[in-house]
Specification:
This protein is α+β, with helices and mostly antiparallel strands and 104 residues long. It has 3 helices and 4 strands. The two termini are 29 Å apart.
Length: 104
């Protein structure tokens, strides 16, 4: 690939990332975690299903608003967990899997 093409692609990636950062608001006190308000997170733990709703103010679980997923994970498990990891969210900076090379 030519240097000019690489610079163009890099510029498009920066523009795309900036646009997505604007549309996906950081929620709660979980740095680097971008989830839109209204999203629902579901986790089964010891045979019980736990539902969390992302709100403008943080996260709602069992009628209570929390500022972090980690606090909710501790409430559910009784032990310290990374909240994003407990709910199966990708690590900050991790690339999302794509369907490249797959049908469907």
């Amino acid at each position: 690939m030519k240097a000019k093409s690489i610079k163009t692609i890099a510029g498009l990636q920066r523009a795309w990332n900036a646009r997505n950062r604007k549309s996906a608001r950081l929620v709660g006190s979980t740095p680097g975690l971008s989830i839109k308000p209204g999203a629902r997170l579901v986790r089964e733990w010891h045979g019980r299903t736990h539902n969390v709703t992302v709100t403008e103010d943080g996260f709602e679980y069992a009628g209570t608003t929390y500022q972090s997923l980690t606090k909710i994970a501790k409430k559910i498990t009784g032990a310290h967990w990374s909240g994003p990891r407990f709910f199966g969210l990708p690590a900050v900076g991790a690339e999302r899997p794509n369907n490249e090379g797959r049908d469907g």
